[in-house]
């Protein structure tokens, strides 16, 4: 089945978007990238999601992340829908969003990337795209994917949180624990010996004692 796995390089597709025609690798440049798909234009859950994505766009920009959406309608539909999205946010109802929306009316890209939801169909019986999130690193390789059904809206604060984790762990030999947020303590990776950890993390390594006696829960302040 077509699709992307972690570590796969993003296909260098060409597509028409609300910001003009793009080639995906050129669009990404040296930035991180988020590609997120939507079942259809002028639908309620998608409108709330794109509205939230637009509100958070400055935060993603601070992290050198380029955002791009995909929906299975034409550019003209996307532009008209953008007015509704801006109005939903309480902003001027213009056709401009802070990120492009890909037109995939023939579902060619959705099929290539494995984005179709087999359980959700339009009135013609055609499958809709699921709510997929792909996060690519500056090397254009897939670092994270999240798949939601069409009936469940995404949490874009969580997407921002995982970007923080991905960027931090790409540069440092650490992992982020459950519910971690920027500024919280992080965990030393299990493969690192204690003596190396003490040298690498001068602010200290703190180990939680456990009944097993194994010292694998090692924390350090965020580098």
Strand order of the largest sheet: 5-4-3-8-9
Principal-axis shape equals elongated
Main sheet specs: 5 strands, mixed
Oligomeric organization of the protein chains: single chain
**What proportion strand?**
25-35%
Short description:
This protein is of the alpha+beta class and 223 residues long. Helix content is 30%, strand content 26%. The longest helix has 19 residues, at 44-62.
Summarize the structure in words.
With 223 residues, the chain is α+β, with helices and mostly antiparallel strands. The protein has helices spanning 24-28, 44-62, 75-88, 108-112, 156-171, 194-200; strands at residues 14-17, 20-23, 32-38, 65-71, 101-103, 116-121, 127-129, 131-136, 142-148, 174-175, 186-188, 206-207, 218-220. A hairpin with a 5-residue loop joins strand 6 and strand 7 (127-129). Helix 2 crosses helix 3 (75-88). The longest helix is centred in the N-terminal third of the chain and has 19 residues, at 44-62.
């Amino acid at each position: 089945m077509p699709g992307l796995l972690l570590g796969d390089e993003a296909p260098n597709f060409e597509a028409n978007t609300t910001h003009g025609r793009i080639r995906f690798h050129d669009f990404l440049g040296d930035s991180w990238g988020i590609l997120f798909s939507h079942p259809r234009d002028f639908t309620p859950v998608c409108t709330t999601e794109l509205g939230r994505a637009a509100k958070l766009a400055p935060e993603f920009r601070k992290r050198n992340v380029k955002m791009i959406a995909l929906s299975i309608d034409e550019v003209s539909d996307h532009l008209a829908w953008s007015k509704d999205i801006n109005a939903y946010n309480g902003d001027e109802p213009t056709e401009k969003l802070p990120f492009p929306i890909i037109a995939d009316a023939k579902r060619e890209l959705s099929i290539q990337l494995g984005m179709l939801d087999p359980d959700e169909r339009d009135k013609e019986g055609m499958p809709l795209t699921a709510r997929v999130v792909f996060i690519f690193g500056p090397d254009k390789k897939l670092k994270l994917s999240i798949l939601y059904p069409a009936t469940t809206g995404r949490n874009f604060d969580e997407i921002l949180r995982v970007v923080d984790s991905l960027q931090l762990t790409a540069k440092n030999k650490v992992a982020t624990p459950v519910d971690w947020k920027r500024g919280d303590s992080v965990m030393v990776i299990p493969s690192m010996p204690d003596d190396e950890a003490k040298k690498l993390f001068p602010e200290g390594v703190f180990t939680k004692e456990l009944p097993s006696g194994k010292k694998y829960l090692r924390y350090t302040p965020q580098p």
